[in-house]
Write a structure and sequence with these properties.
Largest sheet: none
Helix content: 55-70%
Radius of gyration: 19 Å
Number of helices: 13
Low-confidence stretches: 29-48
Number of strands: 0
Shape: globular
Strand content: under 5%
Order of helices and strands: HHHHHHHHHHHHH
Amino acid sequence: MSFSKWIGASLGWSIGGPIGAIIGLALGSMVDAAVNENRDTLLGEGKGKRRPQTQSGDFEVSLLVLASVVIKADGKQDQRELDFVRQQFANMYGKERANHAFKLFKGISKQNISTRQVCGQIYRMMDHPSRLQLLHFLFGIAKADGHVTEVEVTQIHTISGYLGISSRDFESIKAMFYNSADNAYKILEIEQSASVEDIKAAYRKMAKKYHPDRVIHLGEEHRKGAEEKFRQVQEAYEQLQKEKRF
């Protein structure tokens, strides 16, 4: 599949708005007429009250744009972070599609991106479970070099706010990448004083929120990524079961 056909076949709402402008600048003349012909139709889908269905390609491009923002947060591009992005895309999409994605990523990384505008488009068009999955991926990028810097945390927190993700959800996903005594509580979004019944209720709530089926519309490649969040919720609950002996 040619590069332009891959773009045309994979993208829905992200072909318009600020993300579409970023893609266009990154690709230049490689964007073919078929993409441009569909632009007005695709943009029109986002005008109603209901969010349009997010396609795998929309999620993919959103990841690329926000990944470039996080990687540049500390003023440099660490090769380990770049390798993480490439490897994650290879795992999710296969080698050929990952090569296309990383080619686009290089073009995106050269641009000055308005984080607020990009996140505003994602917030309007992408469902909440998919936005949570974006956040999880961004922390994975930041952790790829062995530690998450304060600058990176600040940048991801800013992105999280623009994406309409609550502070509790942010802290829950953040806790999945840190080792501390209260991590299990943070992942389940409860206080350390929580009762056994509170813990059980929180587990049921978080298991539902992070269940891989919530992002099934993005394709099997993203369901696999969501399974990691779900696994960590289960481990947090099992840890508290042992501590509280219930």
